[in-house]
Design a protein that fits this description.
Elements lengths: L1 H23 L9 H4 L2 H12 L10 E6 L4 E6 H8 L4 H11 L5 H10 L5 H11 L1 H24 L3 H4 L6 H12 L12 H29 L3 H38 L5 H110 L2 H13 L1
Antiparallel strand pairs: 1-2
Helix pairs in contact: 1-3, 7-8, 8-10, 8-11, 12-13
Amino acid sequence: MAVNLLLAFSIYIRYDLYLEWYRSRHMLTEVDTLYTSGWWQSMVFEQIICLIAPYPFTYNYIYTEVNSNYNVTIHYKINQILMCFSFLRVYILFRYGLFKSSFMTPRASRMCNMVGCQADHMFAIKALMKQMPYSLLMVILILTIFLFGYQLKVFDGPLSDASQQNFNLLSNACWNVIITLTTTGYGELYPKSQLGRLVGLIVCFWGTFMVSFFVVSVNNMLNMKPSEEKSFNIILRLHFKEELKDHASLVLGSAFNMKRYEKRQPYSENLYQIAVKRMKNSIQAFKRAMSKVRRYMDEESQMDMFTNQVDNVQDEVKILKKDSKIIQGGLNQVISMLQTLNDRLEQQKEIKSNKLTEDDGGRMLASQNSFVTESMVSYNPRRQMTLMRQETKH
């Protein structure tokens, strides 16, 4: 009992850790709880499943069933019934296998979020059905046969002496599960107790899913790949061409026989009509063979046309890429040439500006020299002294 309570508490811890993880990834807000997120329902459901188990305080409790068909009273211990239903815990192993796969890893979750889906249990199941369908179905089938077979052994075993169907043997119970899964039902073994019939009903519904899984897997296995389908069409077309040649030879032979019987002496109307009928039949067979060849030729020609169009588009894209590279190279050359010309023009402008600066400096120096010369020439000391004396007298 303590183990079951510890298991239920560990389920709560797991959901609480999930909640913290989703909060850290900002997929839930800080105020979200197990109740507001809606996870409490699945958590309580898992806890109820894990709490279904035999307990010490239910050891003395007995469930009684009266079978009126055989006038037998069956006594089941409650712990036996709880033990049979405790096999629901097998989902833990199944979920562990899903978590160990490469479709529920953090990397898978990140990739799924990038494309807008979730890496949950259903995604992992679909991915495993695509990757390894036969292994997964075989594991599920073996678990189904042995688990439900054991339950039938427990529920219908006490009726073995009265019904003369020995369900105390596990092999007989498993055989009954197999024929129920496949919806065969030979009738030599079938459950008689109410609980056994409940198990048989569950197996019957589960068998429809298993059979559908097998059908889908086989269908996917038989589907041809594009290369295989193309090879098949080519081989079939060549086969029909050979048949067309044979029918053409039959038409020519029947036409030759008809002409031969027409010109034969003595003339026989019956032989001629037989030859005409054979020729008509040969022509009809030739037309049918021609239609088959034409149909496959049309399908192949349409596919070839589509393939050629795709190839042409790819070639045009390649040509455009090459032309764009050539144009880009030419543009780069033109840009480099323009840059070179611009640099040369800048250099010429600098040279001209330097020359102009030197010329202006020379002119200014010459004008200054001439001004100094003129000043020196025009300067007369005697005249200056005379002028100063006159100003002093006044």
